[in-house]
Specification:
150 residues
């Protein structure tokens, strides 16, 4: 649970830092696949234990997806800060818990798609929505840390 709270703190910091800066999207090429490689065994899946802050975490994932879409809609250069923050959060919070990973990923995608279906260009309402969602994300992250942190 300590890793989860640490990543939530990291997410809050990212929320604050990303509002002041614009990061260029990083493109990484996938390494070539060797057809002769033997398949790796599937990782051992641990029993999932729901945390008392799962619902807030799911909402935070949805908010991050929304902010990711809206920020990229309204900035000159695409940024990948929000998606990377979400990936870090998922990686830390859902180690060997595939169902939780799927729920958090689905929430992020739902937030992204919700705004993608409404806004195709950057408008004043899109800017306001991004600001409000960013504030909600910061509040959620702070609440999770304050209430469930060590």
């Amino acid at each position: 649970m300590t890793f989860g709270l640490t990543i939530i703190r990291l997410t809050v910091m990212t929320l604050l830092i990303a509002t002041a800066t614009t990061a260029a999207a990083q493109k990484t090429a996938a390494p070539p696949q060797d057809k002769a490689q033997t398949p790796t065994p599937a990782p051992v899946v641990a029993e999932e234990k729901p945390t008392p802050y799962d619902q807030r975490l799911i909402r935070l994932a949805e908010v991050l997806g929304s902010v990711h879409y809206l920020r990229n809609l309204c900035v000159k250069e695409p940024e990948d800060v929000w998606r990377r923050s979400m990936q870090e959060l998922i990686d830390k919070e859902t180690v060997n818990e595939e169902n939780r990973r799927e729920r958090m990923t689905a929430a992020f995608n739902r937030g992204y798609r919700t705004f993608a279906s409404v806004y195709t260009t950057c408008t004043q309402p899109a800017i306001v929505a991004e600001q409000r969602y960013r504030a909600e994300g910061a509040t959620l992250a702070s609440e999770i840390v304050a209430r469930f942190g060590n």
